[in-house]
């Protein structure tokens, strides 16, 4: 006769929560925590285990890395537009609108990312566990943005020192036998001019990256301060009127 | 089948010069001047709207890439000797 199963403890094996892989998933998780805290249930600080905090940190790192790549690519182009060296909308003499637009393009990814983090997590910056989770994302953003600035600064200054007109000319002469099947002599001259134009704006670009990164990092912090005050007010109202 | 190929081939409607001139007109209209600026501003607006506000990152990044294309494609063509 088959033995009936005895009642016993249930272990939630294989029920481990999946780690957040993207910013949207991390934001959603933190929003759930914040909703619980705002309804009056305090979540202890150690609720977030180390793996969770590291997962939030990783989400912040991914955003900073993508921003670093885009900055390294588009800030020199934008500075080239400001210095009348790179055409935008087909003109080498950009208007004020064109200049501002090129700066906006260079900063758009970082700004958009920071605004998204700030808008969505600002209202959640309340309670120990939520603050800890948000701080994990934000500290990763700060750490890797500082690293990004240092790397871009070194890269742009190094390239400025390296790419002298003589060096560029010599390298093109050395590589010309391999490149002549790919481009005409006129295109090769155009490419050399373009490289030397980019060199002119590398120093300016490295300082612009410092400025744009500082702006991008300040935005979420402003949202956090504003949001935490609003959340505190909301919590007080809940306690007063709804008895949470 | 031949009819279909003739139907798809633009050179059966116009000469090669007319065809190139038409592409040139499309290119200068889309990537230079006021139309390019309006399209680029619209695309950047959509990039912020979808990427930052609606949290649909893929669409946001697509519009951001489109903005970059509209603004700088003439730089790329100039680089390759087209401008």
Description of the structure:
The complex is a heterodimer of chains A (244) and B (83). Chain A is mainly α and 244 residues long. Chain A is 75% helix and 0% strand. The mean pLDDT of chain A is 83. Chain B is an all-alpha fold. Chain B is built from four helices and no strands. Classes of the chains: A mainly alpha (244), B mainly alpha (83).
**Considering DSSP H and I runs of 4 or more, what fraction of the residues of chain B is helical?**
over 70%
Could you name the ranges of chain A where pLDDT drops below 50 across 5 or more consecutive residues? none
Strand content of the residues of chain B, in percent?
A: under 5%
The succession of helices and strands of chain B, N to C, reads: HHHH
Shape of chain B: elongated
Portion of residues in beta strands of chain A equals under 5%
Biggest sheet features of chain B: none
Q: What value does the average pLDDT of chain A take?
A: 83
Number of helices of chain B: 4
Structural class of chain A: mainly alpha
Main beta-sheet strand count, sense and barrel state of chain A: none
Give the ordered list of helices and strands of chain A. HHHHHHH
Distance between the termini of chain A: 54 Å
List low-confidence stretches of chain B. none
How would you name the oligomeric state of the polypeptide chains in this document? heterodimer
Number of strands of chain A: 0
Spatial separation of the terminal alpha carbons of chain B: 38 Å
Radius of gyration of chain B: 17 Å
Number of helices of chain A: 7
Structural Rg of chain A: 26 Å
């Amino acid at each position: 006769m088959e033995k009936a199963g005895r009642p016993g403890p249930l272990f939630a094996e294989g029920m481990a929560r999946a780690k957040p892989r993207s910013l949207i998933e991390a934001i959603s998780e933190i929003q759930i925590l914040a909703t619980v805290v705002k309804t009056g249930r305090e979540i202890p600080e150690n609720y977030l285990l180390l793996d969770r905090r590291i997962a939030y940190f990783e989400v912040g790192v991914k955003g900073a890395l993508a921003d670093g790549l885009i900055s390294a690519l588009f800030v020199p182009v934008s500075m080239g537009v400001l210095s009348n060296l790179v055409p935008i909308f087909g003109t080498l003499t950009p208007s004020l609108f064109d200049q501002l637009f090129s700066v906006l393009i260079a900063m758009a990814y970082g700004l958009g990312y920071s605004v998204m983090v700030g808008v969505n997590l600002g209202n959640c910056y309340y309670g120990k566990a939520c603050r800890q989770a948000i701080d994990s994302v934000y500290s990763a953003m700060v750490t890797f943005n500082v690293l990004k600035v240092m790397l871009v600064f070194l890269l742009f200054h190094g390239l400025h020192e390296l790419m002298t007109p003589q060096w560029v000319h010599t390298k093109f002469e050395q590589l010309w036998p391999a490149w002549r099947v790919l481009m005409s002599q006129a295109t090769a001259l155009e490419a050399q001019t373009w490289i030397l134009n980019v060199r002119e704006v590398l120093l300016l670009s490295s300082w612009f990256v410092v400025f744009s990164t500082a702006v991008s990092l300040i935005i979420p912090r402003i949202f956090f301060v504003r949001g935490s005050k609003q959340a505190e007010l909301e919590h007080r109202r809940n306690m007063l009127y709804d008895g949470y | 089948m031949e009819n279909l190929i003739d139907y798809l081939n633009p050179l059966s409607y116009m000469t090669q010069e007319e065809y190139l001139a038409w592409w040139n007109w499309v290119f200068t209209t889309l990537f230079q001047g006021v139309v390019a600026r309006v399209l680029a501003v619209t695309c950047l607006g959509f990039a912020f709207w979808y990427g930052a506000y609606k949290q649909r990152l893929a669409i946001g990044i697509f519009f951001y890439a489109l903005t970059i294309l509209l603004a700088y494609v003439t730089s790329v063509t100039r680089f390759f000797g087209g401008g």
